[in-house]
Structure formats: structure tokens, C-alpha cells
Specification:
This protein is an all-alpha fold and 298 residues long. Helices cover 73% and strands 1% of the residues. A two-stranded antiparallel sheet has the order 1-2. It is elongated. The protein contains 14 helices and two strands. It has two domains: 222 residues, no CATH class; 45 residues, no CATH class.
Length: 298
């Protein structure tokens, strides 16, 4: 995932250097990325809606060619081509978000490398300084596996300044974004952003479920899958926000809220401009005749 963190850092670094706040940098970058991917999201949601509308026609074809798999695939492809539907396009935003997620994980866990651009030797020196500070205070820092944990400990700031760098400001509305919930459960403030991230995921799942339910053409299989995701996604979010730095929870919360807003707006637009797709193959023939007549009149 580190090869994905590099390109993302090119966007994060100048913004952080401008506003000097790690949390707001994550929020701004998340908003920018979501704005840049709006055309892809619109294309994906429209394609998924059209695929759902085609479900009755697809079911007819499946029944008609249930004993001829090759013919069924051919007719299905003709159907997709005729109504300009790409069933795979619905996966594109998910793939993009996955790449962005991995990029954020790389940056959040390794801020010394990707934001301050310290070398491997300098990072090792900062880690050693933190260990010495802990020994002097009689504290046990445990395994300093992640740079983000190093940044939040005594001794790190002084060592970073020694390299002519300004320590990263991880304070976001009074919350230390280097902390992990599973290691700081007694700190009520650390709970706020992870809980908001889970709540946003639940809201997103509920809205998606309602939108699917309104479309009777979605099919039992799609409905069953959507019902399972309504439960699975919040559980997964709760787990990952529990074991990851709060900075990742902030990214997840911001991204989910923006996606929910986009989903609602795009759905409203699509309702105002619905695609004219027939409900049955017989209706399809009638629609084609109607279109032909209109063309001949023009």
C-alpha cells in the first residue's frame, strides 16, 4: 500500500504545509478527492440503476435460454449494448475508494516519511529518542511498530526539531489523531470520531437499502446482498476504527458523509430524468416501434 501513499502524499503535503493542521488536512484532501471522482460516481450510479431496471428483461432471457448458456450470454451482451449498460462500471468507484483508502493508511501510519519526508535513518533516530525518553521516565512504550505512535510520544518533537523540521500538529478539535481507541479506551474524547464514523456507515447502509427497496426491479438476490451489507459494513467499520489511529477514523467519517450526500443528490437528479427502459421484452418491441415512428416524423 506504500506505493499508493506516495502519490497521495504529493497532495497532502502542500496542504498541510499551508494550514499546519493534520486533521483539517485529512478532511480537505478527502473532500477534494471525492469532488474529483463525482463524474465516475454519477456514471456508476446511473449504470447500476439501469442494470436494475433491466432485471425483468434479464429474467425473461434467463428463462428463455436456461438450457443454452452460450446463447444466454450473447443475448445478455446484446441487451447491455442496446441500452448502453456496463454492469462492471458499478465497481469502479469502489476500486478507486479502495486505492485511496490504502493510500491514506500508508500516510496515516507513516507521517514522518510521507509528510515530513524524513529519511529511514532519521526516523530510526526519532524512534530511539522516544525510547530513551521513556526509559528516563520509567515508562514502557511497548513495540513502536508505527511511526504514528512514535509521533505522539514524549521525545519525538525534540528529535524532529533536531533535523530542522517542525513537528506535525496532530491536534484536531482537542483530539490527538495519533491515538488508537483500543489503547486509550478510558479517554472519552478518543471515542468521538470512531463512533461518528460507525454512525455515518450505518446511515449510508440504511439509505442505500431504502433506495434499493424503492426499485422493485432490483431482484431478491440484490436485496439479500444489500441486507447483509447493511449489517456487515458497520461491523467492519467499528472493528477497523477500534484498532487504527483516530486519523483513519476521521478520514472514514468524512468520506462516508460525502458519499451519502452524493448518493442522495444523484438519486434525486436521476428521478427527475429517468431512463426509459421497458419492463418486458414485448414492451421493448413496442418502445422500438415508438422510437422509429418518432424518428420518421422528424
Amino acid at each position: 500500500m506504500y506505493f499508493l501513499a506516495g502519490p497521495l502524499a504529493f497532495l497532502i503535503r502542500p496542504i498541510y504545509e499551508t494550514i499546519q493542521n493534520y486533521g483539517w488536512t485529512l478532511v480537505i484532501v478527502t473532500v477534494l478527492i471525492n469532488l474529483l471522482t463525482i463524474p465516475l460516481t454519477i456514471m456508476s450510479q446511473r449504470s447500476m440503476a439501469r442494470t436494475q431496471q433491466l432485471q425483468p428483461l434479464m429474467t425473461e432471457l434467463q428463462n428463455k435460454y436456461k438450457n443454452d448458456r452460450e446463447k444466454l450470454n450473447t443475448e445478455m451482451q446484446k441487451l447491455y449494448t442496446k441500452y448502453n449498460v456496463n454492469p462492471m462500471s458499478g465497481c469502479l468507484p469502489m476500486i478507486v475508494r479502495l486505492f485511496v483508502l490504502f493510500g491514506f493508511i500508508g500516510v496515516v501510519y507513516n507521517p514522518l516519511r510521507y509528510i515530513l519526508q524524513l529519511s529511514a535513518d532519521q526516523i530510526a533516530s526519532v524512534t530511539e529518542a522516544v525510547k530513551k525518553a521513556a526509559e528516563a521516565a520509567g515508562a514502557d512504550v511497548g513495540r513502536l511498530t508505527y511511526q504514528v505512535k512514535v509521533c505522539g510520544m514524549p521525545g519525538a518533537a525534540e528529535a524532529i526539531k533536531g533535523f530542522g523540521k517542525t513537528p506535525i500538529n496532530f491536534n484536531f478539535l482537542g483530539i490527538d489523531l495519533t491515538k488508537m481507541l483500543n489503547e486509550n479506551m478510558s479517554d472519552i474524547k478518543i471515542w468521538i470520531i470512531p463512533v461518528l464514523a460507525v454512525a455515518a456507515t450505518v446511515l449510508s447502509s440504511v439509505i442505500t437499502k431504502k433506495m434499493m427497496a424503492k426499485n422493485s426491479a432490483a431482484g431478491d438476490q440484490a436485496a439479500a446482498m444489500n441486507n447483509s451489507m447493511t449489517f456487515v459494513m458497520p461491523v467492519m467499520t467499528a472493528y477497523f476504527t477500534f484498532i487504527m489511529p483516530v486519523g483513519m477514523s476521521l478520514y472514514w467519517f468524512t468520506s462516508t458523509v460525502i458519499n451519502v450526500a452524493q448518493q442522495i443528490v444523484i438519486n434525486i437528479i436521476m428521478k427527475k430524468h429517468p431512463s426509459e427502459i421497458p419492463l418486458t421484452l414485448n414492451d421493448s418491441k413496442k418502445l422500438n416501434k415508438k422510437i422509429s415512428k418518432e424518428k420518421s416524423k422528424n
